Amino acid sequence: MNATNAPAAIEVTGMSRRYGRATALEDVSVSFAKDQIHGLLGRNGAGKTTLMSIIAAQDWPTKGEVKVLGHTPHENEQVLPKICFVREDQRYPDDALARHAFRAASAAFAKWDWDYAQRLIADFRVPEKTKLKKMSRGQKSAVAVIIGLASRAEVTFFDEPYMGLDAVARQVFYDRLLEDYAAHPRTVILSSHLIDEIAHLIENVVLIDSGRVILDEPVEALRDRAITLVGRADAVAEMTAGREVLSDETMGRISRTTVLGGLTDHQMKRVQELDLDLQPVSLQQLIVRLTNRHSKNEHRHDVPRDQGEGEK
What we know:
Blueprint: E1 8-19, E2 22-33, E3 37-41, H1 48-55, E4 63-68, E5 83-87, H2 98-108, H3 114-124, H4 137-150, E6 155-159, H5 167-183, E7 187-191, H6 195-198, E8 204-209, E9 212-218, H7 219-222, E10 226-232, H8 233-240, E11 245-251, E12 254-260, H9 265-273, E13 277-280, H10 283-300
Parallel strand pairs: 3-7, 3-8, 5-6, 6-7
Antiparallel strand pairs: 1-2, 1-4, 8-9, 10-12, 10-13, 11-12
Helix pairs in contact: 3-4
C-alpha cells in the first residue's frame, strides 16, 4: 500500500483474473488514494488494462474484491456513473460523429461540462463532420481524452488513449489535465509507456509486472530510490559493494552501475575522493530497472506465467 494518508477511492483486495489457463492478474491488493493523479505503469501484458477494466466494472475478477468510492462497482448504478474509462481502442457505431460521442458522454456523466468540452474540441482541432471510423488515430485519441477530461468523473481512467496524439497535442492534454485537476480534484489513473513525460503529473506510482504489483509508492519517495555511479571500475566496485545492483555496464576500465538506495554524507565524500560521477536516475530508468529485476527473479525461481491476449 502507498504511504499516503488520503482516503482510498479504490481498494482492490486479493484480486486474480484468469482467462482459461492464462493469468492476467495474480493476488493483487492495491489502493488508489482519492483526489490524486496515479501512474499505473508496466510493460505490455503486465495486467494494467485488466486491472482497470475490473475496477471500472467492464470485466469480472476470478477471485478477490474491488470497491470504488466504498462500494462494489459491478452492476451498481450508484457507482458506475462516477467512473469514466477511456482507452485507445474505444469503439463507436459506424456512422457516429464526434458530437454523438460527446452527447452520449454528457448523458452518462452528471458533471459533464459542455463549455469545457467545446474549448477542448477547439484545442485539439477535432473535425465536426468526419465520421469517427474515418478519423486518424490522433483525432480518435483527441475525442477520447476530451471525454475523459470533460466528464469530470470522480474516478477517471486514461488507458493510453493519448498515445495517438503527437507531441504537441500530448502536451496540450497534460496542461489541460493539470489545470482542470487543480480546479476540480478527482481520482485520475494514467496508464502510459511515456513515463518521463507523465512524471511531473503523477503523485503516486503503481507498477505491475507479470500480473503482480511490484511497486506502490508516492513519487516523492522514489526520487532518491536509486543512484548511478560512473568511473573507474575498482572505485565503483568499492562504492557499490553490498548494495543491490539494478544494472551494471563496463567498458574497459570504466563502469556504470545503478544501485538502490542513497548515500550518506561520508559516502558522498568518498565518491568525491574517488572522482566518481554521481548521476540521478529518472523515474523511467528506475521503473525499467525495477521491472527487469523482478523479471529476472521470476525466471530465477522458475515461476511459470501466462498472459492474456492483447493485454496492456
